[in-house]
Amino acid sequence: MLKGLAITPPVIGRISIGRVVEKNGKRLPEKDDQFTVTTQVQNHDGWVLHPLDDTLRKSCVGKLRSIPVWMLFDDPDLNLRAEYALFDRETGRPQCVGNGETCRRASAEGIETQPCLSPDLCALGRKAGCKPYGRLYVMLGEEEMAAFVLRTTSFNSIRTLAARLRYFHAVSGGALATMPLELKLRGKSTTQSYRTPIYYVDLVLKSGETLENAVAQAHETKRQRIAAGVDQAALDQAARDGFSNGAFEESAEDVPAVVEEFYPDSASHEVSPGSMAVNELLRDKLTRRTQVERGSTS
């Protein structure tokens, strides 16, 4: 195995809830309110849709907001890779990756291990735009040990997915890889969003399943796999060794697209379906304030 090269699950597609659009001569990230399943190929119009995208849409009513999935591993931390990450926007290279305790930072002397204070308390992180960055690896369709990756910098998505994975792992007695699950898109409003919905990813039981039935099915499938000679524990260990083989998990080929979609220039801002509504709310507030101030001085 090549040292310094992180061995990550083979990815054959992407799951996203947004895209990059051309706006006023700039390429900016645009959020969406539904899932899109794509290949790893781009053309002039963006990422090429995966055949599964059409299949999933035909089986749902309205927008694609749930996707049945299987986990690759029993260990929750192997399915969801999350850390604080900072990329150099000029070179597109990973600059610093940390877990809140320690970080691996690229310098002129090589990769250095330093304390990780989290983005809010780190001078470099505040200046350069460090933020949580997660990758969820899931299986769709029938191709074994081939992953679709959902990348996200949403704190809501990362926290929710991390909690769900641990809960399902615990309640199933560690049989996470055989639990029938599905990704679900949820909406919420915050004071920062001015009551405009923001969307995050959740992980729930497959539609129609009860917890009891799902756990029973997970253990029966696991029993069948063991009888057939499938060694899930060895697979998890192989993945664990592969992840730890390199300092940074994103490949040089994928990083530019990651930076463009999730780490835009500070001068840019994300465009979302509700962004115009937010701007209108702000404009209305400023207008009312101006009117009040004028009235008080007249």
UniProtKB/TrEMBL annotation:
Q: What is this protein called?
A: Hydrolase or metal-binding protein
Q: What is the lineage of its organism?
A: Bacteria, Pseudomonadati, Pseudomonadota, Betaproteobacteria, Burkholderiales
